[in-house]
Design a protein that fits this description.
Structural class: alpha/beta
Largest sheet: 11 strands, mixed
Strand content: 15-25%
Subcellular location: Cytoplasm; Nucleus
Order of helices and strands: EHEHEHEHHEHEEEEHEEHH
Keywords: Cytoplasm, Nucleus, tRNA processing
Shape: extended
Main location: cytoplasm
InterPro entries: Elp5, P-loop_NTPase
Pathway: tRNA modification; 5-methoxycarbonylmethyl-2-thiouridine-tRNA biosynthesis
Length: 294
């Protein structure tokens, strides 16, 4: 994981059976090792329960925000910590914020903090049995996040699907397994999904979304049960080139000869909307508002 590739809003999504808090602490550890300042906003955990390696780091600050009544109060506390573009802000429970302040206000708060810092890392623990409203809340948070780490336990493995939105509008997706040591060092490695891939919707969703799996090779095309025609022989390519495409003829003046709208008329060719007035059309040249005074 390249910590400097994380930008704006990053969400850690932990599903049933896995705790996303250690993963978040591992990301924080990487940020500190990369010389970033880290400010942790605690709404669910206590500062005293944080690992000593974090608490004793001079670049790490933890603010317990249990009694905060407004985002303005939280912003004022952050202002005292001199948050800048070389800072990572961690929120240990996004659902608590949404429940207390509403989703629109929480989204606004995240975007505001993201403008001040290098990255906002927010932890979301979701249950698959939650109602549609909670799932809709997550989809809206996911839509404003530039990076999403989706964590899930499967057999004896802990899996992570990382989806990163690029600046050019495209998305990059990776599917890996990870392990976290006692000192919160995190290691990623390829995951062999081929043996029972069909039984795992989590993996299937990653593949169908066009992601990369394991060693980073794109697999969504090779996994399709039909041929897209990307590997044609020379003879097949020539045959395909000879297939007439009627709609292309309408892009030329010669091709318009057979159309009724071009009969005895000069018509410009190309992608245009051509309208021939009907005799029943009523064109009123007068101004319907000419009796209004300003």
């Amino acid at each position: 994981m390249d910590i400097f590739r994380l930008r704006r809003i990053c969400a850690v999504y932990a599903s049933d059976g896995i705790n996303g808090y250690p993963f978040s602490l591992a990301v924080i550890k990487k940020a500190l090792e990369s010389k970033l300042n880290v400010c942790s906003l605690l709404f669910l955990h206590l500062r005293r329960d944080l690992p000593d390696a974090l608490k004793n780091n001079p670049k790490f600050v933890a603010l317990e925000c249990f009694g905060s009544d407004s985002f303005e109060e939280i912003r004022q506390r952050l202002a005292k910590e001199d948050i800048s573009r070389d800072s990572l802000v961690f929120i240990d429970s996004l659902p608590v914020l949404i429940e207390q302040f509403s989703l629109p206000s929480t989204s606004w708060f995240l975007t505001q903090i993201a403008e001040l810092s290098a990255c906002v890392l927010a932890l979301v623990h979701r249950s698959e049995s939650e109602d549609d409203q909670n799932n809709e809340d997550w989809r809206r948070i996911e839509s404003i996040a530039s990076t999403v780490f989706e964590l899930r336990a499967r057999d004896k493995h802990t899996l992570c699907r990382t989806k990163t939105k690029k600046r050019n509008g495209t998305a990059e997706e990776k599917f890996e397994q990870f392990s976290i040591e006692e000192d919160y060092s995190i290691t990623f490695s390829p995951f062999d999904y081929s043996s029972d891939r069909a039984d795992d919707k989590f993996v299937e969703n990653s593949i169908s979304a066009g992601g990369t799996v394991g060693n980073g090779t794109a697999t969504h095309l090779s996994a399709l049960p039909f041929d897209l025609g990307l590997n044609l022989s020379e003879e097949e390519r020539k045959a395909k080139a000879r297939v007439p495409l009627p709609y292309l003829d309408a892009q030329t003046e010669k091709g318009l000869v057979g159309l009724n709208i071009s009969f005895n008329k000069k018509v410009r060719v190309g992608g245009r909307i051509l309208y021939v007035p009907d005799k029943e059309d009523d064109f009123d040249e007068s101004d319907p508002d000419d009796d209004l005074t300003i």
